[in-house]
Design goal:
single chain; about 575 residues; alpha/beta; four-stranded antiparallel beta sheet; disordered C terminus
Length: about 575
Amino acid sequence: MLRSLVRTFTRVDTMETAAYVLLSLASALAGSLAAVLLVPLVQPGHALTFAGGVFAARGGVELQAAIFAAATFAFAVLRWSTARLGARLTARYGMTRRRQVHARLLDARLDALADSTSAEIANVLTYNVEIITQGFSALQQLLVAGVTSLVSLAAAFWVCPPLMLATPLFAVFGVIASRAFGREQSRVGRQYVADMTRLFWHSEDFPRRLRHVRSFQREDAEKHSYGAISAQLGDGYRRQLELVANGRLLLELLAAVGIAAVFVLAYRWRGVDQAALIAACLLLGRLLPYLVSTRQSFQQLRSAAPAFELWQRYMSLEAVRSSAASAPADRTALHIERMQLAPPLAAVDVRHLRLSPGELTLVSGDSGIGKSSLVDVLAGMSLPGIFAARVDGHSIGFGEYRERVRHGAYVSQSVRPWQYSVRECLHWAAPEASDQMMQAALLDVGLDKRLADSPDGLDTTLHSASSRLSGGELQRLLLAQVILRQPFLAVLDEATSALDAASEIRVLAAMKRRLPRTILIVVSHRASVATIADQCLSIDGDLRVTVAAGIDPCCAVPQKHGGRGRPHDSLV
């Protein structure tokens, strides 16, 4: 994991991490110096005999105390500076990881997300990054502990060279401490990430799910199910803390045995200076707090490993490469000569479909038959199996087609606005829109009267109890976004399902009128939409596609032997 984590560093991260290590080194040196300077105060009249007597007890007690205080002050300031730099590094690292994975999800191909649940994606974007950030912070703590340990041990060996004989003992204790409970910690961490994803799955879309649960009188079952997941998470968290406590106990026992062994060795070795032994004791004593924090840092780092793997999996998604969207200067009709969906819907084969600005194409068929997959391709968001099209008599491939429809709008049935207010929602779709333009769009979709009754008008909040919009009103608001967007191609995938039949016709007719330069593709189960459609594309139960002129309402109903309108093409 460490190698993969380091690869995510930017140049600024690398430079500031180097500065963090240098500050840690300076802090460790200042702390070791303060420990050595404490010896003349603890044992007056005795001088350390290394480094040419630099640390000899000279001057009065006041001067010695002042020098010790200055070294301690420098140690405190350097450690404080290190902590501040570490906080800035950790905050930026977490922010960058969130932005990166969110950007990759926005750029990912739709089919790459086919096997991903919304709960897992929500976890990746929220709590999962928190675990990764904690792991990064733990890595910083390990750097500090490592630098401090090296400096303290080096100073102790310098003060008391016979301690070098204890080096193998230190190495053995370090290996035991780093490997203890490692596998179990990794297993607990992976299960914790999986359980957190289950909790997201259980918690998403709660208000609408609550009505479903209550109508089936399954409140107790849901409480039991949620409680079981919570209990498993609690057990995982408890086990993580227990492993930290176990590791802390092991480290403290090892430290006690190690330090006792060092002292016995020092006393048995002839010629060991008592002042040097006191200094070594103070230097080694500085490591005890780091032993405890080091074990916890190792635990956090192991817990972050599965979270980092999940983050990497989403960062490896293939991105859709395309230029920035802009309104096309030439809104020419598109003639799709053939479009076959990719497996497993390769049987859906469309031929001779003409998409003209100002015209509405109705797509109909049974649920689950492939309508959404078909309009995903028409919107340029999914790759087809076969594609051939013409514009003004010359052939274009899917890449050019996708660029032509990039200035689009796609509204599906299940999408709900996530903005705070009506104004924010409309500005999101058209940042340049004035209040008058927004009011006109709301009038077209029939939402003007609802907002006229609200004292806040365009600033009406979308989800508060006092002004919450209904499902149909939210759909109208999304359709107002489309009008303000003025797209070249607009796909409405059952985006009017919450409206009654008459309101659906009125709103779609108003959109046709307001979007004369827009290709409208509407997915609907209602045959009445065919009355305002210019053509109907229907998929029957055998996945046969029929494209017919929108003259007869029956053309909206999938039929195995073709519609009663004027068929353009019927394929088996």
